[in-house]
What we know:
The protein contains 17 helices and four strands. It is mainly α.
Amino acid sequence: MSPTNGEKFLAAAAEFPEDALPDDKKVYEHPLVKRYATKEMSFVWSPAMKFTTWRKLWTALATAEQELGIDISDEQLEEMRTHLFDVDFELAEQKEAEFRHDVMGHVHAFGDAAPAAMPIIHLGATSCYVGDNTDIIQIRDSLFLVKRKLVQTISILKDFAIKFRDLPTLGFTHYQPAQLTTVGKRCCLWMQELLMDYDRVVMEIEKLPMRGVKGTTGTQGTFLELFDGDHEKVKILNKRVCELMGFEKSIAVSGQTYTRKIDFTVLSVLSGIAQSAYKMCGDIRLLANLKEIEEPFAKTQIGSSAMAYKRNPMRSERVCSLARYVMGLPSGAANTAANQWFERTLDDSAIRRIILPEGFLAVDVILTLLSNIADGLHVWPEVVKSHVMAELPFMSTEVILMECK
Length: 405
């Protein structure tokens, strides 16, 4: 039997010379990280951020436990604080392979760096203590970055709106010429939606709860054992850990995990930003076709390999492409939230590793592009005027109709 085309390709891949190209060019590169996203947002979702946050959470837990009377020495706490950032990733991977458990792999790697503290690292906690609380911290820090970029974009658009507030232009309904508006007024439509998104981001930051110290099924049973059934101390422990990690509150009740509806809510906010960005850039793409407005076009930029005269709105198209992706993410979060059985099920893990960072990374790119586009938007007033004049006779019909009352 002759091989299929696919089988021929696999055979060719197997014969690829090992030294033909660098090894890092033979594995998939995520375009959101490699091509687009900022270092700030990429860092928030990096292994360095994730695993040093785990260590900060373990240190915060041990600190609060000591304050409440558990036998933990100052030496142990100091050793933990000293080794927050020197993560031995190779050792952690070896231990994870041995135990088939990522959290225990990092417990042992931390214990290797801070041996005196090893007996009390993760004391009373479950894996979700570090896993879920870190997710929430990453979400919070990402929202701060998104908020900052929204402010920057809105500020740039404000200046554009003021500059062109008196320039009449054709309004369009059904993409047909309608009554006049102004270039600045149209920009205000874009700004208004982004301001609505800003309000949602601020609200999410303000109300975002930490998972806190909850135990294996959310009953805090292990911590009640640790404190000999003293409920008040367990409440104080939970509050104190949240304070040490910069949170004013924790989620009221949980199973093993925080409710995955939080992920859906957050991704819905990101979807809203993507919708606003798509609307703005969709308008710019249509106006570029009319030659009324152009996005920034670099001096050495090539519009087309075959049609040198073209000035394609490539940045706006990229925004729309990424926005389309982000707008689809909430459905995955909705299904994940709906399918959490009882106190938890692990089918949430893999998808959340993808949609949470990718949602924020994509929005980071979108807002960077929006600021860049807004800052370099070029208006052609004479083209705008020519379109107005061509339709002006029809503009008077609304006034005539009003006079016919």
